[in-house]
Specification:
heterotrimer, A alpha+beta, B alpha+beta, C mainly alpha, B: alpha+beta, two-stranded antiparallel sheet, C: two-stranded antiparallel ribbon, 17 helices, globular
C-alpha cells in the first residue's frame, strides 16, 4: 500500500490500482485520476452534487477490520487484508473517498446497473438524433454506446412532452430530451445567481420550466446549454447551423473584457459557428458570458475592410505601407495603440512609436462589470501594453491630451492601431488637422478620414497572447483564415517599422518572440510555444501601484493583483 | 508447394497443318455472322436495371410529397469523396411539418466527386437519400454536374415509406398515447 | 450506243474505260472499309456503325436503310479525313514521308489496266474480253507492278524515322519477298495448262478465262477444281502480299503500335487505307480470273452458252447485244470479286495474327517447297495429258 505523501492525502484503490488523492475527493474524481471513466450525467465538478441520475453507480468496499480489536483481517489465501464489499452499489459522485476505500467499476453488478439506468433514461427519450444539435457531443449517445444494452425492449408509447419551448432569448428547451439531471437548475442558482429554473410535476410528468413570469435571460444562460448532457437545451444561435463533428476546435480567448475567459472557437472551412468556454480553473472554471459567444459574428459582419487604401484609392499592401511610412518619417507623430491588440502587436506598436519618436496613447474602455466573468475594463489587454512598455500608466478616460497636442500643432500624423479616434474622444475638426494611418478590421469614422488604411485581422484570424487582469498571459490561436486583402497585424506593423527605418523584426509570433523575450523583462524567460493552455501568471509587482479599474470577479480580487506590495488605499 | 510440370499435349498432324482449325474457325464465325446482333441500342433501348442497383444518389419524398431529409449531415460526414454538401436549416413555422423542425436549406451532391458507393444511403436515418436507377449524368460544365436540392428531388421522386416516423410522432403529440 | 463507243478513237475509249475503272475502284475500296466494319460487327453479333445520318435525310424512305448500313458513316469518315489537320511530325523525312502514301496508290491502280473485268459478245458471237490493255504479259505485269507496292511501305517506315514504323517497313519488305516466290510459282501450272506446247503462248489473264470457258468437262472446269493446291497457295500468298490478317506484319498493331503508318494521320493515312483495299480488289480479281472462271457464271456454263440459253429461253435478241452481255458479265465478275473480298474479311475476323517467325517459316519452309512440288507435279501431268 502506498503511504500517503502528506496528511492531506489518502490512498484509495480503483479497480486494483492504488492512488493517493486529497481528502474530500469524490469517487468519480478519484477514478479519473487513474484514468478510469465513471459515466455520469448530473455530476459536474463545478456544481453541487445531487446524485439524481444514478449513472455513476459503482461498487465500493472497505478494508476489513476486526470489530473488536480494530486489527486488519488478513485473507489467508492472499496474505492481504480482506475487503468488505458493500452489497449494494453506491453513487460515485456523492461518496467521498476515505482511507483504504476500494472502488470497483468493472464488476458485473456495475455493468448491470449502468445498463439498467441507461434503459430507463432511454425509455422516454425521443429518436431525435438526426435533428438534435447535441448529436455528436451527447453524453446519452456516448454512454448508451459505451454502457447501454444496445437494443430496446420498450414497446409501449413514449412520453410526449413539449418541444421547442423558448426558456429565454438564447436558450431553447426540448422537454422530451431532458433527462432531469438538474445541472441547468443548479448552475442558474449557484453560479449565475439567477434562480429561474426548476422542475414541476412528478414522475414522468416532470418538466423543466422557468418560474412563471421569468425568463432564462441572464448573461450566462448559454452555459446551461454547454452543461446539458443531452440535447434538451440548445442555443438558438447555433441551432441547426452545423453538426459538431464537422467543427474544428481552436483555443482562443474571450476579448470582451480583461477577465480573459478561455474559449474554444468551433469552425469549419473558414467559417466560425460558435464559441464555447474552455475549462481553466484559475480564470473561468468552465463558464463564459453569453455576450462573448457572439463575438465571432464580427468576422462576417458588413463593413469589413477589404483592401488597403491610400488617400481613398485602393492600393496593395506594399505601397500602402510605403505611403504610411512616408507620413510617419519626419513628421510629428502620435501613436494610438489598443488594449485589444495582442502582446506581440503592442510590442511592435511600441517599437514603431519609439522609431517615430511618438508618444503612445491607449484608449480606455471602463464600463460596467458583473463581478462574475465580465470585468469593468472592456479592454482585454491593457496589462499587455504595460508589460511590453507601450504605456507606463493606465490609459486616461479620453484622448483629450492628444487632442490638445493636435490643436497646438505638435502632432501632424496619428497612427491608430484599430481604434476609432472619433469614438475615443477626438473631434472631426481635430482629425482634419492631421494625417491618419489606420490599421483595422472594419470601416468606421476614422478609417473614412484616414490617409492610409490597411486592413488587418480579427482575433479569430491570428495567433497571439493577451495578459488578463490577473497578469496571466494566455495564448489564442488562429481559427480561420483572414479574408483576402487583409494582412496579419504583425506583418503590417513589422513592415511599417522597417519601412519607417526601424529594425526588421519577425512578422509572426514564432519569430517575434525571441525579440520580445530579450527586450521585455517580464517575459524574458518565456517563449510563445512554452505558454501553457491555461496561461502563465506574470510577476505583477512592477505595476502594483497602478489603480486598475477592475472589481472582484470569479478567481480575481483586485487586491490580490499585488499580494506582496501594500494594498492600495 | 510442389511445382508440377505440365507437359504440353503434342499436336496431331492435322493440328499442325493448321487447316482443320482454320476451317472450323471460319465455320464458327460464319455461323455467328447470320445470327441476330446482341447489342442493346442504348439510347432507344434501356437496360433492365436489377434491384439494388446503385445509380445516382437522389433525395426522395414520402408518399405525401413531403421532404424526408432532416439535414442530419450524416451522409455528408460519411461520404468518402466529400461529394455531399448540406446547409441545414429549420422548417418554416406553419408548413405543416413543423414537428420535424429541421430540413436542408441547400443540398448539393457533386457528381464529379461521387463514387456511387452507397454509404450515404446506408447511413441515412430517414431513408431520404437513395441511389436509384438513374445512371447517366452529363453536363456541359462542372457546375452542371452538381445536383442541387431541387434536381435531387426531381430525380428522386416519391418512394413508399414503411415507417412514417414523423407522422407517428405528430399523432402522439396531438392525440392519445402520451402525456400532455 | 455500243456502235458510238466503238466508233470513238481507241485513245478516248481507253481513257473512258480507265476513268470508269478508277471511279469504280476508288469508292469500292472505300466502301470496303465500311464492309470490313460491318462484317466484323456481324461476325461478332454487333450492329456495327448504324447511327450516322445527315439531318436532311431523316424521314426520307430508304435513308434509314443506308443509315443502318453505315453508308453515311462512310461519307462522314471520308469527309473527316479530308478536313482534319494533317499531322507532320518534326523528325520525319518530309519529302518521302509525304511521297509514300501516293506511291502506295500507284501499283493498285496500274495493275487494274491488265485485269479484264468482263466480256461481251461481238456481232459474230465471239467473246471479247473487256480490259484496258490486253497485253500478252498480263500476269507478269501484275506481279511486277504489284510488288512495287512494298516500296511505299518501306518508304513510309523509313521516312517516319522512328522505331515502330521502321520495324514495320522491314517486315513488309521481308514478307513480300518471301511470298512473292510462292505466289508466282503457284500460278505457273495454270499458264502451263493454258498454253499448249507448240502453240503461241500468252500470259494474258483473258486467255486464262477463255480457257475456262471451253466446252466439255475438262474445258469448262474452273482451275479451282483442277488445281486446288495452286489456288490455296495463291490465296495464302495473296493474304501476305496484301498485308491482310493473319499476315499483317507491317501493321501489327499489337506489337508495333501501327507499324509503318504509326506516324501517319488524316488524309495520308487514309490513302494507305484505300491502297490496301484497292490491292485487295485487284488481288481478288486476279484470283477470280485465274481460279474462279472469271465472268463465267458457273463451271461448265461459259458466258457465251449462258447468253445463248437466255436468248433461246426468252426469245429476246437483247441478250446478244454487246452492251447487255458486257454488263451481265461485269456483274458476274464483280460478284465473284466481292465474294473473294468477303472471304478476306471473313478470315481476318476468324484467324489470329501469326508471329513474325511463323510468317517466315510458313513462307519459306511450307509454301515455297509446296509450290515447287506442285509445279513439278503439274508439269509432268500436263506433259502426259497434252504431250
Amino acid at each position: 500500500m502506498i503511504q500517503p505523501a502528506s496528511p492531506d492525502l489518502i490512498t484509495v484503490n480503483v479497480d486494483g490500482k492504488e492512488i493517493a488523492v486529497p481528502k474530500g475527493t469524490n469517487m468519480i474524481e478519484a477514478a479519473r485520476r487513474v484514468g478510469v471513466d465513471v459515466p455520469h450525467y448530473c455530476y459536474h465538478s463545478k456544481l453541487s452534487i445531487v446524485g439524481n441520475c444514478r449513472m455513476c453507480l459503482v461498487e465500493m468496499g472497505m478494508p476489513a477490520v476486526d470489530p473488536a480489536s480494530k486489527a486488519p483481517v488478513i485473507d489467508p489465501a492472499t496474505g492481504k487484508q480482506r475487503v468488505n464489499w458493500s452489497p449494494r452499489p453506491t453513487i460515485a459522485c456523492a461518496t467521498n473517498a476515505s482511507p483504504g476505500l476500494h472502488i470497483c467499476t468493472t464488476s458485473p453488478m456495475v455493468k448491470e446497473c449502468r445498463e439498467g439506468v441507461m434503459e430507463f433514461l432511454l425509455i422516454n427519450h425521443p429518436l431525435d438524433c438526426p435533428i438534435c444539435d447535441q448529436a455528436g457531443e451527447c453524453k446519452l449517445q456516448e454512454q448508451s454506446t459505451g454502457y447501454g444494452r444496445g437494443y430496446s425492449r420498450f414497446i409501449e408509447q413514449k412520453n410526449v412532452k413539449p418541444k421547442r419551448t423558448l426558456l429565454g432569448p438564447r436558450v431553447m428547451l426540448d422537454d422530451e430530451r431532458c433527462i432531469l439531471c438538474s445541472r441547468c437548475i443548479r448552475f442558474s442558482k449557484e453560479v449565475a445567481k439567477d434562480d429561474v429554473l426548476g422542475f414541476v410535476d412528478r414522475g414522468s410528468y416532470s418538466t423543466l420550466t422557468c418560474y412563471p413570469g421569468k425568463k432564462l435571460e441572464n448573461n450566462y444562460s448559454l452555459n446551461t446549454v454547454d452543461i446539458c448532457p443531452v440535447g434538451a437545451l440548445t442555443s438558438t444561435d447555433f441551432r441547426f447551423k452545423m453538426r459538431v463533428w464537422f467543427l474544428k476546435q481552436t483555443n482562443s480567448i474571450d476579448t470582451e473584457t480583461s477577465v480573459g475567459v478561455n474559449t474554444v472557437v468551433w469552425s469549419r472551412e473558414g467559417v466560425v459557428y460558435r464559441i464555447t468556454p474552455r475549462e481553466n480553473g484559475s480564470v473561468n472554471d468552465t463558464w463564459m458570458p453569453d455576450s462573448g459567444r457572439t463575438l465571432y459574428k464580427q468576422i462576417r459582419e458588413g463593413g469589413r475592410l477589404e483592401a488597403a487604401r491610400v488617400s481613398g484609392s485602393v492600393a496593395d499592401l506594399e505601397s500602402a505601407v510605403k505611403a504610411a511610412a512616408a507620413l510617419i518619417s519626419g513628421a510629428k507623430v502620435a501613436v494610438v495603440g489598443s488594449g485589444r491588440s495582442s502582446v506581440e502587436e503592442q510590442f511592435l506598436t511600441r517599437k514603431l512609436a519609439a522609431r517615430a519618436g511618438a508618444e503612445a496613447y491607449l484608449v480606455s474602455r471602463v464600463g460596467q462589470g458583473d463581478n462574475l466573468l465580465v470585468s469593468t475594463d472592456k479592454n482585454p489587454n491593457v496589462r499587455g501594453a504595460l508589460v511590453t512598455g507601450l504605456i507606463s500608466e493606465l490609459p486616461k478616460p479620453s484622448l483629450g491630451a492628444l487632442g490638445e497636442r493636435i490643436d497646438s500643432g505638435s502632432v501632424t500624423t496619428v497612427v491608430s492601431v484599430g481604434e476609432d479616434l472619433l469614438a475615443a474622444g477626438l473631434s472631426a475638426s481635430q482629425l482634419a488637422k492631421v494625417s491618419i494611418v489606420y490599421l483595422g478590421t472594419h470601416d468606421n469614422a476614422t478609417s473614412g478620414l484616414a490617409k492610409v488604411v490597411i486592413p488587418t485581422l480579427t482575433v479569430f484570424e491570428k495567433h497571439g497572447t493577451f495578459v488578463n487582469q490577473q497578469f496571466r498571459i494566455q495564448r489564442f490561436a488562429k481559427a480561420v483564415p483572414g479574408p483576402s486583402g487583409s494582412s496579419d497585424d504583425l506583418v503590417v506593423l513589422s513592415k511599417l517599422l522597417s519601412a519607417a527605418g526601424g529594425e526588421a523584426l519577425g512578422a509572426d509570433v514564432g519569430s517575434l518572440w525571441p525579440s520580445i523575450a530579450s527586450e521585455v523583462p517580464a517575459l524574458s524567460t518565456m517563449a510563445y510555444s512554452n505558454i501553457p493552455d491555461t496561461g502563465l501568471l506574470l510577476d505583477s509587482s512592477p505595476w502594483s501601484t497602478l489603480a486598475f479599474a477592475e472589481e472582484a470577479t470569479l478567481h480575481f480580487k483586485p487586491a490580490a493583483a499585488a499580494p506582496k506590495e501594500a494594498p492600495r488605499g | 508447394m510442389a511445382v508440377i510440370q505440365v507437359q504440353r499435349k503434342p499436336l496431331s498432324l492435322a493440328e499442325r497443318t493448321y487447316i482443320p482449325q482454320v476451317i472450323g474457325g471460319l465455320l464458327t464465325t460464319i455461323k455467328y455472322f447470320f445470327r441476330p446482333s446482341e447489342t442493346l441500342q442504348y439510347p432507344e433501348q434501356r437496360p433492365a436495371i436489377p434491384p439494388g442497383y446503385r445509380g445516382v444518389p437522389t433525395l426522395v419524398m414520402d408518399p405525401h410529397g413531403r421532404e424526408k431529409c432532416v439535414s442530419c449531415q450524416l451522409c455528408e460526414f460519411v461520404c468518402p469523396p466529400k461529394a455531399i454538401r448540406i446547409t441545414p436549416g429549420s422548417v418554416a413555422q406553419g408548413a405543416g411539418v413543423d414537428h420535424v423542425e429541421k430540413a436542408p436549406q441547400a443540398f448539393d451532391i457533386d457528381m464529379l466527386r461521387c463514387i456511387y458507393c452507397g454509404l450515404c444511403e446506408e447511413v441515412c436515418p430517414e431513408e431520404a437519400i437513395v441511389l436509384q436507377n438513374q445512371f447517366s449524368m452529363s453536363g456541359y460544365g462542372r457546375s452542371e454536374m452538381v445536383n442541387h436540392k431541387d434536381r435531387l428531388y426531381e430525380l428522386g421522386g416519391t418512394l413508399p415509406d414503411k415507417h412514417f416516423k414523423w407522422d407517428k410522432k405528430k399523432a402522439a403529440e396531438t392525440g392519445a398515447g402520451g402525456h400532455h | 450506243m455500243a456502235n458510238f463507243f466503238f466508233g470513238l478513237p481507241l485513245m478516248v475509249q481507253g481513257i473512258a474505260k480507265g476513268l470508269a475503272v478508277i471511279l469504280f475502284i476508288f469508292p469500292v475500296a472505300a466502301a470496303c472499309s465500311m464492309a470490313e466494319r460491318k462484317v466484323s460487327a456481324w461476325i461478332q453479333r454487333r450492329p456495327g456503325p448504324n447511327r450516322t445520318i445527315p439531318p436532311f435525310f431523316v424521314g426520307i424512305p430508304g435513308a434509314s436503310i443506308l443509315q443502318r448500313l453505315g453508308i453515311f458513316q462512310l461519307a462522314a469518315d471520308g469527309g473527316k479525313f479530308f478536313f482534319k489537320e494533317e499531322p507532320l511530325p518534326n523528325h520525319v523525312h518530309k519529302f518521302y514521308f509525304i511521297l509514300a502514301p501516293f506511291i502506295a496508290m500507284i501499283p493498285a491502280f496500274t495493275t487494274v489496266t491488265v485485269v479484264p473485268f468482263g466480256a461481251y459478245l461481238d456481232p459474230e458471237g465471239k467473246v471479247i474480253p473487256i480490259m484496258l490493255a490486253n497485253v500478252d504479259i498480263g500476269i507478269l505485269a501484275i506481279f511486277a507492278v504489284a510488288s512495287l507496292g512494298v516500296y511505299s511501305l518501306i518508304l513510309a517506315g523509313w521516312a517516319s524515322n522512328s522505331k515502330y514504323p521502321f520495324l514495320g517497313g522491314v517486315r513488309a519488305s521481308a514478307q513480300l519477298i518471301s511470298y512473292e516466290l510462292s505466289m508466282t510459282l503457284s500460278v505457273l501450272p495454270v499458264f502451263l495448262w493454258v498454253n499448249e506446247p507448240g502453240s503461241s503462248g500468252s500470259l494474258s489473264l483473258a486467255r486464262v478465262v477463255e480457257f475456262q470457258s471451253h466446252a466439255g468437262f475438262w474445258g469448262g472446269t474452273w482451275f479451282l477444281f483442277t488445281m486446288p493446291l495452286s489456288a490455296a497457295i495463291f490465296m495464302i500468298a495473296l493474304f501476305a502480299e496484301t498485308n491482310r490478317q493473319p499476315f499483317d506484319m507491317p501493321e501489327s498493331e499489337a506489337d508495333l503500335v501501327g507499324g509503318f503508318h504509326t506516324e501517319y494521320g488524316a488524309f495520308k493515312w487514309s490513302l494507305f487505307f484505300v491502297a490496301e483495299y484497292a490491292n485487295m480488289i485487284v488481288g481478288s480479281a486476279v484470283f477470280a480470273l485465274l481460279f474462279l472462271g472469271g465472268w463465267n457464271l458457273l463451271p461448265w456454263l461459259p458466258l457465251s452458252s449462258l447468253l445463248e440459253d437466255l436468248h433461246r429461253l426468252t426469245g429476246s435478241a437483247l441478250w446478244l447485244n454487246p452492251l447487255v452481255s458486257g454488263v451481265l458479265s461485269i456483274a458476274i465478275f464483280v460478284a465473284k470479286v466481292l465474294f473473294t473480298i468477303f472471304f478476306f474479311m471473313w478470315v481476318r475476323w476468324t484467324v489470329p495474327r501469326f508471329r513474325y517467325d511463323q510468317v517466315m517459316r510458313i513462307g519459306w519452309k511450307v509454301l515455297l517447297p509446296l509450290s515447287i512440288a506442285n509445279l513439278v507435279a503439274y508439269t509432268v501431268g500436263i506433259y502426259f495429258l497434252q504431250g
